[in-house]
Amino acid sequence: MRHTGLSEMSKKEIILNKEKIEYDVRSSSRARCLRITIYPNGELAATLPRGMSFETLEEFIRQKANWILRKIRLAQKRKPSICLPKSGRKEYLKHKDQALELAKRKIEELNRAYNFQHKRISIRNQKTRWGSCSRNGSLNFNYKIVHLPEKYLNYIIVHELCHLKQFNHSKMFWNLVAEMVPNYKSIRKEFRNL
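Now predict its structure.
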């Protein structure tokens, strides 16, 4: 049976080794293969290519049960250095304007050293990305930047600003980042555990 009723994202439950696990499932026309992700907070998500049966996804998750449970437990044991709220539309709407003002202020402050030209600044509700820079020079940031300590916030803003000049992660790009965030390597390492 083909899954036709799955929305782009929905919540599901599955029993793995007698343990009930909740997960997000996304149906994507761009996905070429089944993919499962375990986020740093221990949440499980699956991406299902359109046309593939939901039963195939559940079987795939069951086959990976031991690995999934081990990764979830490891993630739950890790103590995040800061406490971030769960992603949700309510949280996003609550903090969107504050995040936009913060991003604008920080861009103005940190861009004095670079003087790069940018276009639109947007705030988004994303699960895994903190920021992005489009080829036309628009800057996008996750609303959760309002919860970040200064050093992480500065790193994100500088990272995206530098993409305005170097649309890559080359040595030249990182040299630009280092002008404002000389300890970017240690910050980036810490940041991966958030």
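DSSP finds six helices and seven strands in the chain.
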